[in-house]
Amino acid sequence: MPNALGEFEQLILLALVRLGDDAYGVSIQAEIARRTRRDVGPGAVYKTLLRLEEKGFVSSWLGEPTRRRGGRRKKHYRLEPAGALELRRSLAALRGMTRGLTPTLELQ
Amino acid sequence: MTRRGFARDPAPPRAALALLAWRLGGVHDEPLVGDLIESFAERAQRDGSVAARRWFWRETARIALQSWPAPRRTPPAPTETPMKHLLNDLHFALRMVARTPTVSLLTIVTLALGIGATSAIFSVAYPALFQAPPYRDPARLALLWERDLDGTTSNIGFTTFRDLVRDSRTIESAAAMAFWQPTIVDGQQTERLQGQRVTHRFFEVLGVTPTLGRTFTPDEDRYQQNRAVVISHGLWQRRFGGDSSVLGRALAIGTYTVTIVGVLPPTFESLLSPGTEIWAPLGYDETLPWACRTCRHLRMVARIAPGISVSAAEEELSGLMAGLVQRHPTEYVVPRMALTPLHSYLVQGSRPALLTLLGAVVLVTLIACANAANLLLGRVLRRESEFAVRTALGASRRRLTGQVITEGLLLALIGGALGVLIAIGGVQLLVRLAPPGIPRLDQVRVDAGVLAFTFGLSIAAGLAASALPVLAAGRANLHGILKSGARGLTIGMRHRLRATLVVSEVALAVMLLAGATLLFQSLGRLLAVDAGFDPSRRLTMEVQVTGDAASNDTTLHAFWRAALDAVRAVPGVEHAAIASQIPLGGNLDMYSLHLEERAGANPAEDPSAMRYAVTPDFLAAMGIPLIRGRWLTAQDAEAAPSVVALNRTAAERLYPGQDPIGRRLRVGGGEDAPWRTVVGVVGNTLHRGLDAAEEMQVYLPAVQWWGESGMTLVLRTQGDPSSVTGAVRSALRSIGPPVAVEGVATMESLVSRSTAERRFALALFQAFALVALVLAGAGIYGVLSASVVERTREIGIRSALGAPRERILGFVMRQGIALAAVGVVIGVGTSIAAGGLIARLLYGVRPHEPTTLLFVTVTLGALACLACVIPAWRASRVDPVTALREG
Questions:
Q1: What is the value of ipTM here, to two decimals?
Q2: What pLDDT digit, counting tens, does each position of B331-355 carry?
Q3: Which of A74, A99, B145, B556 could potentially form a cystine with A63 if both were Cys, beta carbons 3.0 to 4.6 Å apart?
Q4: Is A46 close to B62, i.e. CB distance below 8 A?
């Protein structure tokens, strides 16, 4: 399973689904932080997106530079069909493994 | 600046940003660093700037510690390879060349001229100066000389040669050589050949094997046994049609017959005696009067033993010579020998001229490079904004530099390709015009070596032309250009770059012009020199008689008397004389003089003088003035008392402060030589060349000397001297014996031939200096024009503020003239410093002659003014309103 998604990859792809057109480094990071209470670094996010893009799961384009970003441009991301398919597969696998276990896991 | 007091967004730590830029290598940094900065701003608002900075540093450290993929798949995707870069650059450079055809063509042509001329001179100079002589192991070959008291070298006597060869351990083999001009008599066809008489190991010393037959045996190298000859491939083809049965064929040479025993390979070059086609054994032994120790008329070539240095061999031979001086103190004076490596010996004559010319063409090429640099610089400056944008879009500086260099190389390589054509034509022209002194001229051609040289030179020229523009492209202030659209380089910087080019062009042109002027002045002074005789309406020819008439002194004297009578009868001949040698004729007969007053002196220390055996009409035929006493007359016959006439220098040196008339001296040592009474003193003539120093000369009646079969005939004619040539030839033939006539020349052509090398160097230098002047003028003009265009706005303001036109005109003129002045000062300084290089080509002028430097300064000054006029006029016509609106 060379294309199997890692956990962090799943989180990022899910963030893309949630953010729609507004997905870029900072918003993805904020979305994950808000929902998972995890402090993920911009470097990790960016590097994972690079990897996903290399696999063809996401695509990107450069936006306009803004003053707030020190004159640097934003890199926008969008979920590609291949990425969406892989995400669905990955979540299905997870659901299959967790079915019926919820009470046990929640007890611990 | 107190903006710190206002609420200002806190900035992320600069050091961290720099670290990120370095770690991410400009590929990923833009969106990622943008994200970091954006988050930083949020955190700074929420948690305070200290916490935000701490966070920023932590994230930076995490990013720095991660591995980052190579920048392959990331936008903007630089998918180009170096090869693609090159093709792109080439394509771009071609487009630039095509878009500015006139300027590009001009640059290419100037580069082609420089490169072509350099290659042509190089192909002449290379075999002459740098290629080893085409003999086996040539580094071990050397010429050996005896030394004179004044430190000069002289030829060697046969007995000395034999002693040295026998006793030396440092020379492997050696040969002695003598000049020889045999006349082949073959039915009606009489031909005088250039030959050499050599001791039998000569070809072995050089390492030459004949293609047909053999070389000489020791038995053939004996007196009157030397009847074998070896001939050159050229003579074999020309005279015997390449017939392989030529071996063993008999050849009538003068009074005797020789046999051909060998034919040399076509590749053999006779460098020790250019033009030689026939070799015979020397045939000397120690008993012969002309083999004596003081009979120093042979040249000696030796092959040094392996592993022995030239200086070691010289040391050993000098030791042997010291032994000879001890044993024969009346025959030698200087206990030293001199060795000249063969290669140095061959190049020493033409080296200064060729090296100077090589220097001159390098200067021309440098000027062409400066012009090309100016062109490229103009393009770089016009494209500053384009370069800035491309840098911002991710083009590396190296890419931009590469583009400038590609363009420079393209221009230079096209120039080089044209240069090859120029070199081919130039070489043919050079070989045709070159004076005879340049060795191995027949080997000169544009071959693979020359092509490689031209290619290398083109590359070097291209790189040299790109250097300054690349520097300019590197200095461009990209940030400023992007921000305001202004020019990146300040006007001052642009001006300095251009000024550098103009100053160098002017300085180079000054050097070339100074060289050309010095050579011109030298030639003028040389031609104004009084040669001591009158060259106008004088005809000379070398006459060789063979057969029975040449058998003894009596028949020879009789023949020459008959010859003079026959020639005097030719209409148009006023005076006719026979001489053993004439000034500028190329021969050199020196004899020692032994004065009666110093009869007890060591004969080895006798002074030597040029000896002329002449007939009475010689003085009138040559136009040499009589100073004291009387000249030789018909009364000074064979049986009459022996007499001699001296030239002024001989009279002054031999009898300082005394009257020489009536004194007695011996010419050509030996106890049996007669005492000759000095009867008169005549004017000096310049024998070796117009630039020769005055030397002692003595004149004897030809009939009071032994008879010679080859003499020079001198005629003074009523009209054009060459018109009597045919009649004189038939008159000589009508006497009877077979006669060969060679070297028919007017005295004027001999004078002109003696200056041939100088005129050759001068003609080339003048051509180069002219090219240099045109290029330097074009350079000044181009720089000023560009500067005026760039300063249109400034000039407009000045003019709007009320500066009169004349002042603007003067302002631009001053600018151009100032540049030229700096160039002239540098050029003159360099010329003075480098003057020594050309000194050996000069005559009567010093390398730093003030008049020359003044002339050069004035010429370049005038040129600079001329080049300034149009740009200055254009500047004075600038309309302030238009200038300010457009600028």
A1: 0.88
A2: 888 888 999 999 988 888 778 778 8
A3: A74
A4: no
